[in-house]
Specification:
The structure holds two protein chains of two kinds.
Chain A lengths: L2 H13 L3 H5 L3 H20 L9 H7 L11 H16 L7 H10 L8 H15 L3 E4 L1 E2 L2 E2 L18 E3 L3 H7 L2 E2 L4 E6 L2 E5 L9 E3 L6 E2 L7 E12 L4 E7 L10 E5 L6 E2 L10 E3 L4 E4 L5 E5 L15 H15 L7 H15 L1 H10 L3 H5 L2 H11 L6 E4 L4 H4 L4 E3 L2 E3 L8 E4 L4 H39 L5 H11 L1 H27 L7 H5 L8 H5 L9 H35 L6 H8 L1 H4 L2 H11 L5 H8 L2 H8 L13 H6 L15 H30 L2 H9 L4 H29 L2 H8 L19 H11 L3 H24 L2 H5 L1
Antiparallel strand pairs in A: 1-4, 1-16, 2-3, 5-15, 6-7, 6-10, 7-8, 8-9, 10-11, 10-14, 11-12, 12-13, 15-16, 17-20, 18-19
Helix pairs in contact in A: 1-15, 3-15, 5-7, 7-10, 10-11, 13-15, 15-17, 16-17, 17-32, 20-27, 20-29, 23-30, 29-32, 31-32
Chain B lengths: L1 H28 L3 H8 L4 H7 L9 H7 L2 H32 L20 H8 L2 H32 L5 H13 L6 H10 L9 H21 L4 H9 L4 H12 L1 H13 L6 H6 L16 H10 L6 H21 L1 H13 L2
Helix pairs in contact in B: 1-2, 1-3, 1-5, 5-16, 6-16, 7-10, 7-13, 8-10, 10-13, 15-16
Classes of the chains: A alpha+beta, B mainly alpha.
């Protein structure tokens, strides 16, 4: 047998796992590999929708939160037509010609008169009756009924008030200009100009009265007014004015100006006597004026800023909605409000075909909705989702199609409840996608490992058999695995747990640092990969939220804190141990027992206790006050005066402790005082442990060393310096390093005692308080302020710093070297 | 007030100095110094008695004189002044906590001992009427589960690392080390998202999963360290007798590993009581509109909530709760102090 045979078997295993093993005549082994392969494929296919037709419509129906159900069946449309025909023929209602014409065409189609056709017609009909219309604002100086449109509009059949309806030519001939509301208008040379772009990106400025007159820019110092759109009418002079303000936020009357809508050079200042006669007009809708100075109300359905400017009800739509309501109220009906919502949505899409396209394309994403677990996982990790959440508001169909209560004969038909105004379509949530993507990638890695193992195994077994003629029988192989793999089997559960509880979250946290995941929007929506931008922010000073400045400051304090807290605790404990251990102290056990109490009390409890003991109205301040110390401090100027930058001398500012009470931990002006107090308090917390540690080490030091020193005539301090101290240091330096890195990340002391210190949560300090160390700052960032990506960046940096120290420390220990 | 305090400290220090001097005299005269120290606690009489003791051994006159020298006495006095002050500072917060829990005021108690008219058990009653029992129950469940599951998952893995050489061992150890170093923080957001996906937020029992997973690396080290001290000869002789690896594990190693397993079990049990970050983030979400969120908390979160908001805090109730939680742990630590400190020391110095 030559090499290629082995390689061929390996290739066979590559194509179908287990195949190579079959060629090696190891059937049980082959079964195992094949089984795992089938498992993998099974999961992928089982979690997918490769074989079902799945599109946006199916998806929205399956989403329980969308409130949308399936489309009415075609029988519904035909039933509708039957009833309509019957009622027309029996003269109960008038025929609708457009509908009859439409039906005549559609019913001879391949599929007859379907629900789709009915929807399309509804849309056509509504649009036909809701074209842009203009109603004369004043007719004999009275605001016309249709101009002041309310929501109870009946069917538009009346034409008395309607000046221009469906006649496009007539509309074009009228030459309307909109009265601009909500725009800032610039007064240049007596003419008013407005711009379509935003203030910063304006391209041109258009004359309000003449669209052909434009300016490239407004000379500085030009008058600018903001048109509020509130109209006033002067019935003496028959003029209509629009109120303008100099700025949107300032509402004092001195800011106003009333500008004649027909002639912008004619305006009234607030102090003009004529202002008193002005009456305010309330009109719904856009006001437009033609070149004859006549005012019209412009009705255009669904103008952006007024979603309730809806489509009018038409004779057909009323008839249809009554039909639907009746069908609901039949006791045999299986129709629910969800189907009604679907119907409204479909009509809405027919009215706005571009929205339909958008819905079909963006709400359905092949990777997200059809692909299986693993494929979707890869896509998730790469793109982090591609569609945002969208809401389709169809409340503009309210008048036309939403059912109302009506009486027919003796029957009362009740409106269908549960009709929504919009359909919520949830887009992709990046954080979930990232997590599931990570999980699937990790699982895939496991499967890949097994796959590769199978290939290699096929090759090697074949080779081994060729060389030695020895082939392990299946049974022996299993026993072998059982024995040999004992190690791996024992580790497997723990490994599995670690992967998904420790490793995956760390990878996730790591990856977050490269995204813009922060704030409430990205919590439920999408975020994107931004590469190293966040890391660059640490070095960008003076921009936005000051992460850069704060980071370095906090880092500096963290390092100082770690060093000083460790050193003070270490030597404090050592000092204590030496003192108690010295020969002149009896009852050593008693002292040790009492002094080790702080270590025995759970750290959390003592930290919280300290926060209330040192609070401004706490017991320490009260005791100091009653002991008379307060009076002394007040005399020295450290207490009792309010802080002020100017009134206090530099020395007083340096020693300032508080106004009424000593501010131990929230002294905003004497930050280093707070920090020093914190380090001192930390001695209480940490020294006892070291005391006990040192004691046990000191008692284990060989007595003969001391005796030899005594013989040589050493003094106690020399004995300490040359024997005790070096030996202690040798034994405890690993612990020292461990304590250092522990204090670096000592969340509890900072958070529970000081809650971050003064200024915590201030955005100008990037949310860091004056005593915040990196980890407590990160906690605030994550839990309270939700700036997840920056918190991740900091945690990576912490890891790099502390990790290298700890890793070095561990690698120095004997046990690791021995291994 | 302040003067009173200083005087008290001085008196205590003098007392102890007196006792120390007596002990010294006893030692020089050949008696056990401890007895002398005890006698020395009786002021005045102690030294008098000691001075009149017959010598049991040859007294070195020079050294004996030293005992009464000014320098020696001064050093003793200073030492005991320092120790008395240290004891005062150590005991102050603890005593305060005790007394605050028995004080019935609505804001911060400002005296070390409660005034007689305010002393009562009211805080404890308030505590039990509040959500304290829920917190206790939640934490207890997590602790027990953590203990059981943790030991199960870790033992096998630790044994393997201790005993066997296998491919990837060094890498595995290194990896475990690295994992330990990551701030547990980094995984917080991921765990939050994970829990949210599976609707596990707000359910305390599921926190166990996190605790177990998070403690695996550290505990593997501990068990490995301990088990590697068990001589390998045991394994080898057992293998000669024909035992396979499984039998060795269950019949020989496990019984021997009971001490370290109990240590790990105790550690696992203790872990959730004082953990704040994780429960705060994962349990603060309301799952049932009828049950207030605070019932889902664990002890640490609950206790802190009592003092963290200056507008709605109940400091004395906090003190009562803190005492109830701290007392058993403190007593346990005091009893087992030697064992615990040695364990931590050994773990650190020997790896």
């Amino acid at each position: 047998m030559n090499k290629t045979v082995h390689q061929l078997k390996a290739v066979a295993s590559a194509i179908i796992p287990g195949l190579g093993q079959v060629f090696n005549k190891q059937f049980w082994k082959a079964l195992v590999f094949f089984f795992l392969f089938v498992l993998f494929v099974g999961v992928e296919l089982g979690s997918s929708r490769y074989f079902a037709k799945y599109d946006s419509y199916v998806k929205v129906v399956n989403d329980p939160n969308s409130g949308v159900g399936v489309l009415y069946p075609d029988s519904f449309a035909r039933g509708f037509y039957s009833l309509y025909r019957f009622q027309v023929d029996s003269d109960e209602i008038d025929a609708l010609d457009t509908f009859d014409a439409f039906y005549a065409v559609e019913s001879v189609d391949d599929d007859g008169f379907t629900m789709r056709d009915l929807i399309d017609f509804t849309a056509i009909d509504i649009l036909a009756h809701s074209t842009p219309r203009y109603f004369l604002l004043f007719d004999d100086l009275v605001v016309t009924a249709n101009a002041a449109r309310t929501s109870d509009t009946g069917v538009i059949d009346e034409v008395n008030d309607l000046i221009i309806g469906e006649d496009d030519a007539a509309i074009a001939a009228k030459n309307f200009y909109r009265i601009l509301t909500g725009f800032t208008v610039y007064n240049v040379g007596g003419q008013e100009y407005y711009t379509i772009g935003s203030e910063q990106t304006a391209d041109i400025y258009i004359n309000v009265n003449d669209p052909n007159d434009t300016l490239a820019e407004i000379p500085s110092g030009a008058d600018a007014y903001y048109r509020t759109g509130v109209l006033f009418y002067d019935d003496v002079t028959d003029k209509v004015y629009v109120k303008c303000t100099k700025s949107i936020s300032v509402t004092s009357t001195a800011n106003y100006r009333y500008v004649n809508v027909a002639d912008s050079t004619d305006f009234l200042e607030p102090d003009d006597a004529l202002v008193d006669d002005l009456k305010e007009l309330t009109v719904k809708g856009n006001i437009v004026v033609d070149d004859a100075g006549m005012l019209y109300v412009q009705f255009v359905p669904e103008i952006d800023y007024r979603k309730d400017a809806g489509y009018n009800a038409t004779a057909f739509s009323i008839y249809l909605r009554n039909y639907i309501t009746q069908r609901y109220n039949l006791s045999t009906s299986s129709l629910t409000s969800k189907e009604y919502n679907r119907f409204l949505l479909e009509v809405y899409f027919s009215v706005h075909p571009e929205l339909r396209t958008e819905f079909e394309e963006s709400y359905y994403n092949w990777f997200h909705d059809t692909a299986g677990f693993f494929v979707k996982g890869f896509w998730s990790v790469v793109t982090l989702g591609q569609s945002d959440t969208r809401e389709y508001y169809y409340n503009s169909l309210h008048d036309a199609l939403k059912s109302v209560r009506f009486t027919e004969g003796s029957a009362v038909y009740i409106p269908v409840s549960g009709i929504l105004d919009y359909t919520p379509l949830i887009g992709h949530t990046s954080q979930f996608l990232l997590i599931s993507g990570l999980i699937s990638t990790l699982l895939f890695a496991y499967f890949l490992l097994i796959y590769v193992w199978g290939i290699i195994d096929a090759h090697n077994t074949s080779k081994k058999f060729a060389e030695t003629g020895e082939r392990i029988t299946d049974r022996a192989w299993f026993v072998n695995v059982f024995n040999h793999g004992f190690e791996y089997i024992m580790i497997l559960p723990a490994l599995f747990v670690i992967t998904f509880i420790s490793i995956m979250p760390i990878i996730f946290g790591f990856l977050i640092a490269f995204t813009n995941f922060s704030g409430f929007d990205t919590d439920t929506g999408r975020f994107v990969w931004v590469g190293f931008d966040n890391f660059a922010r640490i070095f960008t000073f003076g921009e936005g939220i000051p992460f850069a400045e704060t980071f370095w400051k906090v880092l500096l304090w963290t390092v100082i804190w770690a060093i000083f807290s460790t050193v003070t605790v270490f030597f404090g404990g050592m000092f204590q141990a030496v003192v108690i251990g010295s020969e002149r102290v009896p009852f050593k056990k008693f002292w040790r027992t009492v002094l080790i109490l702080p270590w025995a009390v759970p750290a959390l409890i003592s930290q919280m206790a300290f926060s209330i003991i040192f609070s401004e109205r706490g017991v320490i301040n009260a005791l100091l006050r009653s002991a008379g110390i307060y009076d002394t401090l007040t005399r020295w100027g450290m207490l009792g005066t309010a802080w002020s930058e100017s009134a206090l001398s530099a020395w007083q500012k340096f020693l300032w402790l508080g106004q009424d009470n000593i501010q131990w931990f929230n002294n905003a002006h004497n930050v280093w005082f707070v920090r020093i107090v914190l380090i001192v308090v930390n001695i209480w917390l940490g020294a006892p442990y070291f005391m006990a540690l040192m004691t046990s080490i000191m008692t284990s030091i060989d007595r003969t060393l001391y005796e030899a020193a005594d013989i040589d005539g050493a003094t106690p301090s020399q004995k300490f310096k040359f024997i005790t101290f070096p030996l202690i240091m040798y034994s405890t330096s690993p612990i020292l390093v461990m304590t250092f890195s522990g204090n670096f990340n000592n969340f509890g002391v900072i958070y529970f005692i000081t809650q971050g210190g003064s200024g915590a949560g201030d955005i100008d300090r990037a949310y860091a308080g004056s005593t915040d160390i990196l980890i407590s700052w990160m906690y605030t960032l994550t839990v309270t302020k939700r700036v997840y990506n920056m918190a991740s960046v900091f945690s990576i940096l912490i890891f790099l710093m502390v990790g290298s120290i700890a890793a070095w420390n561990f690698s120095q220990t004997r046990a690791f070297k021995e291994d | 007030m302040l003067g009173l305090f200083f005087v008290a400290i001085l008196i205590v220090s003098l007392l102890f100095t007196h006792s120390a001097i007596t002990a010294d005299i006893y030692a020089h005269k050949g008696y056990p110094p401890f007895r002398g120290a005890l006698f020395g606690l009786l002021p005045g009489y102690g030294i008098y008695h000691a001075l009149h003791l017959p010598n049991r051994k040859q007294v070195l006159v020079g050294a004996y004189r030293q005992v009464f020298s000014f320098k020696e006495i001064a050093m003793k006095l200073i030492t005991f002044l320092y120790l008395s002050l240290a004891v005062f500072f150590v005991l102050f917060p603890i005593v305060y906590l005790f007394s605050a829990s028995f004080t019935n005021v609505s804001e911060l108690p400002t005296t070390l001992f409660p005034p007689a008219h305010l002393a009562s058990f009211q805080n404890y009653i308030d505590l039990f009427e509040g959500d304290f029992l829920f917190w206790y129950k939640n934490t207890l469940i997590i602790a027990v589960l953590n203990m059981v599951l943790g030991v199960i998952f870790i033992t096998g893995a630790g044994y393997v690392f201790a005993r066997f050489k296998f491919k990837g061992k060094k890498a595995g150890l290194m990896g475990i080390l690295v994992l330990q170093v990551f701030p547990s923080f980094m995984g917080l957001i991921a765990m939050f998202t994970l829990f949210q996906t599976f609707h596990l937020l707000g359910k305390p029992t599921w926190l166990t999963v996190l605790y177990v997973g998070g403690s695996i690396p550290g505990n593997i080290w501990l068990i490995k360290g301990y088990l590697s001290q068990i001589p390998k000869d045991l394994d080898e002789s057992a293998m000669l007798d024909g035992a396979n690896k499984w039998q060795i594990f269950f019949k020989i190693i496990l019984p021997l590993a009971v001490p370290i397993l109990s240590f790990v079990a105790v550690g696992q049990f203790m872990a959730p009581w004082m953990d704040y970050m994780l429960p705060r983030m994962l349990l603060d979400v309301q799952i049932d509109p009828n049950i207030p969120v605070s019932r889902q908390w664990t002890l640490a979160v609950g206790l802190f909530s009592m003092i963290s908001d200056p507008r709605s805090s109940s400091y004395t109730t906090f003190a009562a709760g803190a005492l109830i939680v701290a007392l058993p742990i403190t007593v346990l630590y005091m009893i087992f102090q030697r064992y615990l400190i040695e364990g931590i020391t050994a773990g650190a110095t020997k790896g």
